[in-house]
Design brief:
It is a single chain. About 70% of the residues lie in helices and about 0% in strands. A two-stranded antiparallel ribbon has the order 1-2. It is built from 15 helices and 2 strands. The radius of gyration is 20 Å and the shape is globular. The N and C termini lie far apart (about 55 Å).
């Protein structure tokens, strides 16, 4: 149980990032700056917490800087009508270099960390208590984000508008939905969750700052949004499976040291295979066979994602 609990806790930053990107892409904006945003927010969060002595200040600072980067992506896409992929990649490079430059003086410094907090009574429940209720607020927040994202997207009228903005922006606009305004809002909200991911690394997972602290976390998150079919539960499941595969690969490295190079790449190879599988016609037919589970089994990319909406 302790191993599974550790896997769940380790997946928290990735869960924040993937849910944030899911919301953004559901609204039609692809935020390719993800990897740089996570690194920059991790640095800013740690620097703010180190300077103020408050973890809360660190998280707020991380959220703020990542929201600012996401707002730039939205502005370039919506107002300037620039290519989202190109803008996102440029901002990824900018955010990464800013993090490395501004964070140089904080490398190796000890800083505050999110304290553990077992939830009274619930933590004493056999099995479930160890798995879900003996963590800290950063990990608990990742659970809440997944459930809230699912409820909001698939169980509320606002969520229906969100899906419409990403799927059929022209039709949504014809029904009186402010397409571009909502794209701004959801891209920035998604950016805030990406900021939480960075802070969760530097103030919880690692509790410190160094170069390449979050290497490839953003790119992995982008891939898992596709793997998860833009569905919050599937996206979260991908994060937990990935962390589990990393743990298994680490255990095998001890037994088979000559296979280290292969084993470290095993999780990525399996995820590529899984992404290929879920995009087959067979998987979509499975979704048709079970309509109640279609959103979970065979979610498709929002058809309006990555494109600018121009009012005629």
């Amino acid at each position: 149980m302790d191993v599974l609990a550790g896997i769940i806790a380790a997946a928290a930053p990735l869960v924040y990032a993937t849910i944030g990107e899911t919301i953004s892409e559901k609204a039609g904006v692809v935020n390719l700056s993800l990897d740089g945003s996570i690194l920059l927010s991790a640095m800013v969060g740690f620097a703010a917490a180190f300077t103020s002595g408050s973890v809360v200040v660190g998280f707020l600072a991380a959220i703020g800087v990542s929201m600012a980067v996401a707002a730039l992506v939205a502005f370039a896409s919506i107002e300037l009508r620039l290519n989202q992929i190109a803008v996102g990649f440029v901002l990824f490079l900018l955010a990464r270099q800013l993090a490395l430059f501004l964070g140089d003086s904080y490398v190796g410094e000890p800083g505050p960390k999110v304290p553990a907090w077992d939830i009274p009574l619930l933590a004493d429940i056999p099995v479930a208590g160890t798995l879900f209720f003996q963590h800290n607020l950063s990990v608990y927040g990742s659970f809440v984000v997944v459930v809230l994202a699912y409820w909001y997207i698939y169980r509320t009228r606002r969520g229906l508008e969100l899906q419409g903005v990403g799927e059929r922006p022209e039709a949504a606009f014809a029904r009186g939905v402010p397409v571009n305004r909502l794209r701004y809002v959801y891209t920035i909200v998604g950016g805030g969750l990406v900021g939480l991911a960075g802070a969760a690394v530097s103030l919880d997972q690692i509790a410190g700052w160094r170069e390449n602290l979050t290497t490839n976390l953003g790119w992995i998150a982008l891939a898992f949004v596709i793997f998860g079919g833009w569905h919050p539960f599937r996206v979260a499941l991908a994060c937990y499976l990935y962390r589990g595969l990393l743990y298994v690969a680490g255990e095998f490295q001890v037994q088979f040291p000559d296979w280290v190079q292969v084993l470290t790449q095993l999780p990525f190879l399996l995820m590529i295979l899984a992404i290929t599988l879920i995009n087959t016609e067979w998987f979509h037919r499975l979704g048709d066979r079970f309509p109640r589970w279609r959103n979970f089994l065979a979610s498709n990319a929002p058809s309006g994602s990555g494109t600018a909406f121009v009012r005629e």
